[in-house]
Design brief:
The complex is a heterodimer of chains A (265) and B (257).
Chain A lengths: L23 H18 L11 H14 L1 H33 L1 H14 L8 H8 L3 H25 L3 H9 L4 H38 L6 H10 L3 H29 L4
Chain B lengths: L1 E11 L2 E11 L4 E5 L6 H8 L7 E7 L10 E4 L11 H6 L9 H14 L15 H13 L5 E5 L7 H18 L2 E6 L2 H7 L2 E5 L6 E6 L10 H31 L1
Parallel strand pairs in B: 3-7, 3-8, 5-6, 6-7
Antiparallel strand pairs in B: 1-2, 1-4, 8-9
Classes of the chains: A mainly alpha (265), B alpha/beta (257).
Chain lengths: 265, 257
């Protein structure tokens, strides 16, 4: 090495840093839609089994204009809203009890672990038995589905509040109520709101499942089921598009809420 | 006010951490607690401030608190313990909110503490926007806003880099010379102890016992003159001799644990 001429140090870092290709996703979406449209227009795929995007769009337009879509959707939205609100309030309340009190934790954690994996839709017949036909068993199914992930998100949020912050508050003699309101709740809130994402998706899933298993009813799940039985794939897919848009709206609203609430992060 | 620890003993399960530690902190005095890692100095501070119940011994506080004191024993934490969702002003206001103060007095106290620590222009900033040094200044402002009798400082500078540490020591000394609030200052850093303390208490390795109490006779404002620095270096050397063997043993213990 002594007499060797100086050699350049070759760059060997880099990579492992995702770059934002902003145009890529819209282009890929457009490409898939274009291929789909082309395949149906050219007759490669039957319009009966897979209607073209344009057909679905125009069906969706008709359903919206005639008010039928809103008739079905509003029923489902009320069920989601009621069930989600019920499950969330109960879940946060029980989550706080489990998070804060050792006895509630000792009892609550095994219970939640045992009941969380049960597919809540399997409880619908039992809930119909208990609560009668109509809205109540559907709302209760959604509430149960929302309740468990909310408890889990709340407890893990409380567990992740740094104990140092609580000791700090105690060192200034903050009363218990202030410790809960000013330290524990804001500290657990990011986890609770992240849990909303899971519970909202669960609510959407359960409303469709519950509606599909009931007959002679209204709701987006009933609508999709009925149109499927009638082999009207364009209406069926229009219903699915509505569900996808609903999911996107909920996700977007939660992201907005998080940006508003957690600008300190 | 005088803070006195009487025969403090403590253990974590079967592991004894403190054994018969007793000392007093006089009004306006800065006492540094120094010792090898794991000697229980932070535990001792927690016991002094009522955050940890001692297994043996007791802590008492005598004399009248300063007139406008809301919280005689007030901590400054190593990790700052700031609420990340509150602004600088919000963090400093926190300890006042449950006290019956007029809005004007609250504002005036917060404003005074912020100005004293040079945080005036960072009032609306969130902790994540601040450097470590600024964060600890917020921690000190929050402690001063309740006008404490004794500050309990748990390695307040050890999460900071050497230069920031130097600057904060200057700030703290200026503050202390101005307000003369007593402090128990836990550190493993000899330089900090020699710069700040009126008395240095050396703890032995676990279980922590008082090994030596060493007064530092030179007034704080004169400690950076060349003569004083020589005297302090000698003191530091003597302290290090005391600490070194303990530290060597303590380090081995930590490895075993």
């Amino acid at each position: 090495m002594r007499d060797a001429a100086p050699r350049p140090v070759v760059f060997r870092g880099g990579g492992f840093q995702p770059r934002p290709y902003r145009a890529a996703a819209p282009i890929a979406f457009a490409l898939v839609l274009l291929l789909w449209q082309g395949a149906t227009s050219a007759g490669v795929v039957s319009d009966v089994f897979l209607p073209s995007p344009l057909t679905i769009m125009s069906t969706l337009w008709d359903l919206t204009a005639s008010g039928e879509l809103w008739q079905q959707l509003s029923v489902s939205l009320l069920r989601i809203g009621g069930g989600w609100a019920l499950g969330t309030v109960a879940g946060i309340a029980i989550g706080f009890a489990v998070g804060l009190y050792s006895l509630a934790r000792a009892v609550g954690v095994p219970f939640v672990s045992a009941l969380f994996p049960i597919p809540k839709i399997a409880l619908l017949p039992l809930l119909v038995l208990w609560l009668g036909v109509g809205e109540r068993p559907k709302v209760a199914t959604i509430a149960l589905g929302v309740f468990f992930p909310t408890v889990i998100a709340t407890v893990s949020g409380i567990d992740n509040v740094p104990r140092g912050l609580i000791r700090m508050a105690q060192s200034f003699d903050l009363p218990m109520r202030a410790i809960l309101g000013k330290i524990v709740l804001p500290g657990a809130l990011p986890s609770i709101i992240a849990g909303f994402r899971i519970s909202a998706a669960t609510a959407l899933l359960l409303v469709v499942a519950a509606e599909m298993s009931g007959a002679q009813d209204k709701g987006i799940g009933v609508f999709i089921n009925t149109e499927g039985n009638l082999m009207l794939a364009d209406k069926l897919l229009a219903g699915i598009v509505v569900l996808a848009v609903l999911g996107l709206i909920i996700g977007g609203a939660l992201s907005l809420l998080e940006r508003r609430l957690f600008k300190w992060r | 006010m005088e803070l006195v620890a009487h025969g403090i003993g403590h253990a974590f399960g079967a592991l004894p951490v403190l054994d018969d530690v007793g000392f007093a902190v006089a009004d306006g005095e800065i006492v540094a607690l120094i010792g090898p890692s794991g000697c229980g100095k932070s535990t001792l501070l927690g016991i002094l401030g009522g955050l940890i119940p001692p297994e043996r011994g007791r802590v008492s506080l005598s004399g009248a608190p300063p007139g406008d004191c809301l919280n005689p024993l007030t901590f400054v934490f190593q990790d700052f313990a700031l609420l990340p969702w509150r602004t600088v002003a919000g963090n400093v206001t926190l300890p006042l909110e449950h006290h019956p103060l007029s809005a004007a007095e609250r504002r005036e106290r917060v404003e005074a503490a912020l100005q004293r620590l040079g945080l005036g222009e960072f009032k609306e900033a969130y902790p994540k926007q601040l450097s470590g040094g600024m964060r600890q200044r917020v921690g000190i402002a929050r402690a001063l806003v309740v006008r404490p009798a004794v500050l309990l400082m748990d390695e307040p500078l050890s999460a900071l880099d050497a230069q920031t540490r130097e600057l904060l020591m200057e700030d703290f000394l200026a503050l202390w010379l101005d307000q003369r609030v007593a402090a128990v200052y836990v550190t493993h850093n000899l330089t900090e102890a020699l710069r700040l303390a009126d008395r240095i208490i050396v703890l032995s390795r676990r279980p922590g016992r008082i090994k030596t109490v060493m007064p530092v006779a030179i007034p704080q404002r004169e400690r950076q003159t060349p003569a004083a620095e020589r005297a302090l270096a000698e003191l530091g050397h003597a302290l290090w001799q005391l600490l070194r063997d303990e530290a060597v043993e303590a380090e081995r213990e930590v490895v075993h644990a």
